[in-house]
Amino acid sequence: MKTSAMENHESFKIFCEAIGIRLVELPDWNCCGSSSAHSIDRELAFDLVARNLAMAPSGRPILTACPSCTLRFKETHHHLTESADARIRFRRQWGVPFDESKKVMHFFELIDGMDISAFTNGEKPLSGLTYAPYYGCMLARPPQLRNQKNFHGLLEKILGTLGAKAVTWKGSTKCCGTFLSVARPEATTEVVNGIVQSGVDSGAECLITACAMCQLNLEIRCNLKNQLPVLHFSEILTLALGKGENTDQWFKRHLVDPKPLLAAHGLI
């Protein structure tokens, strides 16, 4: 989010500020390793997340906006809670005991139950916008996290209160290929084309994603003649709140230009 998805990062910060959430970035944080480290070296993947957990201050939840980070953080937290050996390794590596009370939250968990329309004075700034909600696969719970809350449907719930209409389609939880985009781009293109075509067939004007990696793959690996703009959830929320002053900087990073669509709906 700090590099290839800067538009996601900036709109996320602006939106949180607009609804009264104060974000404090973790100093000297490191990448969670995502799918790459997890697939190659499980101990390294564990340590990458554990270091962040060790540095995070007590008494505050750890907020993630990336489904992959959420999955890695929650799995590591769960493993530390369940395994005495993991807690011993944690203390040996980082010099502090594991704090089980540290809560890991995804962005969805933060805004679930909030009435976002209250910040638009009850108006519906997204009225007329028809979109396909795309969650991807990383928010699906692995067996060890089966008791965690599932937030599928939250995109539709929140954007619906702002006037947007979600289509019924087949691609909402299909994997975009994640890091196979680097190792097997031809395989990713086939998968992505199927997802985007499903959105086109459903009558959606755009896709709205919960994941920065998905957004990147859906644009960079699609080679269909008819493509759809792919917007970050944080972007459309920020626009709905009338806080999109820097959209020129955001949208020039999109490979499928969303400006004609957003202008047609009076959002820019």
Automatic annotation (TrEMBL):
Tell me the Gene3D superfamilies matching this sequence: 1.20.1050.140
Residue ranges occupied by any Cysteine-rich domain in the UniProt entry: 6-73, 133-218
What's the domain of life for this entry? Bacteria
Q: Which Pfam families match?
A: CCG (PF02754)
Provide this UniProt record's keywords sorted from A to Z.
Oxidoreductase
What is the protein's name according to its record? Heterodisulfide reductase subunit B
| Source organism per UniProt | Desulfoluna limicola
